[in-house]
Amino acid sequence: MSPEKMFIPTPHSPLLSPKPYSPNPPSSPPLLPPTILIPFLRSPPRMSLRFICKAAASVSGSGAEYPVGQSAEQLAGESHAKPKMRRKVAGADQEELLEPEALADPDSCFYEFNGVKIHHKVCHHGAKEEEADAGKIGLPLILLHGFGASVFSWDRVMKPLARVVGSKVLAFDRPAFGLTSRLSYFGQSGIGGGDATPLNPYSMAFSVLATLSFIDLLGAQKAILMGHSAGCLVAVNTYFEAPERVAALILVAPAIVAPFLMRKENQVDKGEKRKDENSNLDSRENPFVRIWSAFCQLCMNLVGLALKMVKRMRDMVKTLYARALSAVLRSTFAVMLIRMIIDKFGIVAIRNAWFDANQVNDHVLQGYTKPLRAKGWETALLEYTLAMILDSGSKPPISKRLSEILCPVLIVTGDTDRLVPSWNAERLSRAIPNSTFEVIKNCGHLPHEEKVDEFLSVVERFLQRVFGVRNEELFEAAA
């Protein structure tokens, strides 16, 4: 190599100058100083994104790669950030739940009973006093909604029914449904009763007493009770509690299990009498029969004692079962589960209740899902489920007492009811003496919503026959 091409460093050469020098072309990015590369070479996995970005910024001399006022760490966080989704259940917003009173309609009313603010609506018949006297009925009508429903389900028929009965029509939301206040109940047994335990607002006993209280609120001695689906249970239990306060029962798609077999009491009584006569003759003629009877009696006493012990054990197991069930249904897991169930099957259940699902518009869906915006709706629904399960185990089935109903009864059902089959309603009419059974064609579980005109016509005919209501055009408001 020639001396001209040799490179001899001098004190003023670029290698010894404090000014950074790079033999690379100007287009290439600047190299990192050794003081920055040393820790990088020692432990590269431990280098943080923040350290590398600061080093690059210090070397480049400007922050042109990033917006002013923002670091690389902030930009990295923004790139992975997702828009916050509002939590909903069956289309109802769950982020901002409100008090039930804040969701009330202009015509809503609240009546406090045993510490519970019960949401209800009252519709007046609007006729003049002379016309009301000519109708000769004047009995108020109380409407009892089904499971998962509310006062909204009676919205289309309240005013026409008020004109039919010539009196007031009242519909109220049972606890755990609609806009009635939600209260927490943590009784030991889970059901109301006694002086030591307060009345459970979600029990059947509370709904029955509330119904009788509304009859008093209307200032009437008697009232006609109309129940739909599970509301029929409240209507029938109210009759058994105070039959003198119920003028008639109208059961729409009743969710009451009808008995399968109707025993013939006369034949049973005759057979028992014959057995008694034969046993008396045998005991008089044969002395060994008396010894055998005494032995059998002793065995029966021992069996009775054993049954008493089993009953005590059963009561103990029942108490433990009630406590375990209460703990499960009042847990956080149960709250999450009920939200998932309502969110997945709530809208589907509403559509399946109709014969023609095309009639289920946004107005109907909003009316049924509006109570899901009230505070504590899920815990109240769990409390209602708990009370319903424990109530069913503590009382005899209502199907065994249907023959005791003596007031006029109308049973209305749809021929294509998918939730409560029409054949169950037909068997129910056979179990209740002197009841009237009506079937509405091309109708599902909600005759009073899906077939308004036909439903009102059936109710009118029944009231005409029982109370002598005059025949006139009473359904103009349903159009």
From TrEMBL:
Gene3D superfamilies: alpha/beta hydrolase
Region (Disordered): 1-28
Residue ranges constituting the AB hydrolase-1 domain according to the UniProt record: 140-451
UniProt keyword annotation of Membrane present: yes
Species in which this protein is naturally found: Ananas comosus
Keywords per UniProt: Membrane, Transmembrane, Transmembrane helix
GO terms for cellular component: chloroplast envelope
UniProt xrefs under PANTHER family: ALPHA_BETA-HYDROLASES SUPERFAMILY PROTEIN (PTHR43689:SF1), HYDROLASE (PTHR43689)
InterPro entries: AB_hydrolase_1, AB_hydrolase_fold
Transmembrane segments: 289-308, 320-342
Protein name: Uncharacterized protein LOC109726426
